């Protein structure tokens, strides 16, 4: 139990490193959470700061998931990697250092899930990208991709791995919860499309 708590705390601390917030403060002297959608993530960074900062944000946020999983696996094996991946996303979404107002965890989820088992994650990413290209809605592509990963895992992962499927399901549920305002705007027809500048 002590090892599990240690892995969870380390991963949560890694997740607290908010790339878009730090870059916004250092480069633009802006708290990204006060602009655009108010989300401290790559999509809002694209709207508020432009492509360069958005790309750096996505890369570093994804790396948080990868680094957390590596540390978790080193300390506690495969189960440690799953726990670390989940808590890195929780740390990104609800960072104590930013009063629990963080991002929506998509990049960190991609990093963790892809590192643990790349095939289901990559299939979902491709589907998500196609949806984004067709609809221009990043939120729709992101939520669709993350929601599909557990089902893809069920189909292609052999032998069956219950812990991995539960991990993916937890990430999917977390993504849906964090995107509930986006889902409402999509249903209302007022969600922002990719490329639209923040007001």
UniProtKB/TrEMBL annotation:
It is a multi-pass membrane protein. HAMAP family: PlsY (MF_01043). The chain crosses the membrane at residues 6-24, 53-75, 81-98, 119-139, 151-177. GO terms for molecular function: acyl-phosphate glycerol-3-phosphate acyltransferase activity. It is an enzyme of class 2 (transferase). This is Glycerol-3-phosphate acyltransferase. Keywords: Acyltransferase, Cell membrane, Lipid biosynthesis, Lipid metabolism, Membrane, Phospholipid biosynthesis, Phospholipid metabolism, Transferase, Transmembrane, Transmembrane helix. Belongs to the PlsY family. GO terms for cellular component: plasma membrane. Pathway: Lipid metabolism; phospholipid metabolism. One of its GO terms (biological process) is phospholipid biosynthetic process. Its EC number is 2.3.1.275. Catalyzes the transfer of an acyl group from acyl-phosphate (acyl-PO(4)) to glycerol-3-phosphate (G3P) to form lysophosphatidic acid (LPA). This enzyme utilizes acyl-phosphate as fatty acyl donor, but not acyl-CoA or acyl-ACP. It catalyses: an acyl phosphate + sn-glycerol 3-phosphate = a 1-acyl-sn-glycero-3-phosphate + phosphate. InterPro entries: G3P_acylTferase_PlsY. Pfam families: G3P_acyltransf. It is found in: Cell membrane. It comes from Senegalia massiliensis.
